[in-house]
Amino acid sequence: MTCTIVVGGQWGDEGKGKIISYLCDKDNPSIVARGGVGPNAGHTVEVNGEKYGIRMVPTGFPNRSSKLAIGAGVLVDPEVLLKEIEMLDKFNIKDRLIVDKHCGIIEEKHKEMDKSNNHLSKEIGSTGTGCGPANVDRAMRTLKLAKDIEVLKPFLGDVSNTLNDALDNGENVLIEGTQGTLLSLYYGSYPYVTSKDTTASSFAADVGIGPTKVDEVVVVFKSYPTRVGEGPFPTEMSFDESEKLGLVEYGTVTGRRRRVGFFDYELARRVCRLNGATQIAITCLDKYDKECYGITDYDNLTEKGKAFIKEIEEKVGVPVTIISTGPELHQTIDLR
After folding, report:
1. In which region does residue 32 sit, left (phi positive, over 0), alpha (psi from -120 to 50) or beta (all else)?
2. Is 199 annotated as a binding residue?
3. Neighbours of 300 (CB within 10 A)
4. Would you say 43 is a known binding-site residue?
5. What phi and psi, each to the nearest 5 degrees, are found at residue 210?
6. What is the architecture of the domain spanning 3-334?
7. Are 68 and 60 in contact (CB under 8 A)?
8. CB contact at 8 A, 11 and 256
9. Domain regions of the chain by residue span
């Protein structure tokens, strides 16, 4: 039995989708459960050369033998969820998805409030998906829950019971967190944060398991961290500099250009302590050093690539066990 939580180590956009998909393929968990805020986080998953941008369905969907669960702590936009179920029809999502009956529901009014609130949309850089206003209503005890929504009834269940039963039966469970630790309402660069905590502890609570059930916490860092929207970014480089390095990216949800910076070892150490990290996954090593592209054996990495990995381990104090060297699942070094 292994319960693993995957957490973003920066401001989101770390490439968690690739890492989660790889772990689902390699470790074959019986359940992949999603924690986090809601549809304000987008993950890009590439399967056989085809890219899928998703915001609600757990990114472990390519493994057809895994159940997919959305925990009670996650806000659900029924419109977004149903569109994704339809888009991913060939992966048989309808028969595998469990939406916790206690998930909060985002309504049109929440999205309108999000977009019309100048403080959120302009100053903070909200995604406009309605998550913040919906979480306000949840705190005020006026929010609709998934059990109140007719179109969601075929998918409703008790995610906490399902996960705990699986763990009691000795099955592997993977919990995927959304956003990044530095967007946490409590530990991020407030007020330029999301509307709840985004660390491993909260993701466990989102899906209804206790801390003693967690075995591994994998924190994902991108070799060049990125950030969408406003807020501090200590190691940020100029757009001109990022263009020279070929680092031009756009957010999955908003389409806004991502700000790019250099790896911040001090922040990475803090993030690993906040999450109780047992392992680090590094993505986009091929962007740090193009000669590392597609390499699957650590010994074949360039000296530059190896030195970067070694420096992370020494300065952050957590072993790097998974290294992504390209977008495809097989372009991965697994040192576990």
Report:
1. beta
2. no
3. 13
4. yes
5. -80, 160
6. 3-Layer(aba) Sandwich (3.40)
7. yes
8. no
9. 3-334
Please give the sequence-ordered ranges of beta strands (E in DSSP) within the chain, or none if there are none: 3-8, 31-34, 43-47, 50-54, 67-70, 75-76, 97-100, 104-105, 156-157, 173-176, 216-222, 226-227, 259-260, 279-283, 320-324, 332-334
Residue 14 annotated as binding site: yes
Taking only the tens place, the pLDDT of each residue in 2-48 is 999 999 999 988 999 889 989 999 999 999 999 999 998 777 787 77
Collect all residues with Cβ–Cβ distance below 8 Å to 258 and sequence separation of at least 6: 13, 226, 227, 228, 249, 250, 251
Written in H, E and C, the secondary structure of 180-212 is CHHHCCCCCCCCCCCCCCCCHHHHHHHHCCCHH
CB 325 within 8 A of CB 292: yes
Angle at 39 between CA 35 and CA 43, to 5 degrees: 75
What SS3 state is found at 169? coil
State yes or no: is 13 an active-site residue. yes
| Catalytically annotated residue among 43, 114, 197, 289 | 43
User: Scanning the structure block, which residue is given the tokens 């699986």?
Assistant: 166
Annotated ligand binding at 332? The verdict is no
Query: Which residue in this structure is represented by tokens 């911040």?
Result: 264
Count the neighbouring beta carbons within 10 Å of the beta carbon of residue 55: 20
**With b meaning 16 or more CB within 10 Å and e meaning fewer, what string describes 236-248?**
bbeeeebeeeebe
Does residue 43 carry a catalytic annotation? yes
Integer Cα distance of 73 and 103 in angstroms? 6
Strand order in the sheet with 279-283: 156-157, 97-100, 67-70, 31-34, 173-176, 3-8, 216-222, 279-283, 320-324, 332-334
Is 69 annotated as contributing to ligand binding? no
- Per-residue pLDDT reduced to its tens digit, 256-303: 788 999 999 999 999 999 999 999 999 999 999 999 999 999 999 999
Q: Which of 13, 77, 264, 289 is catalytic?
A: 13
286 annotated ligand binder: yes
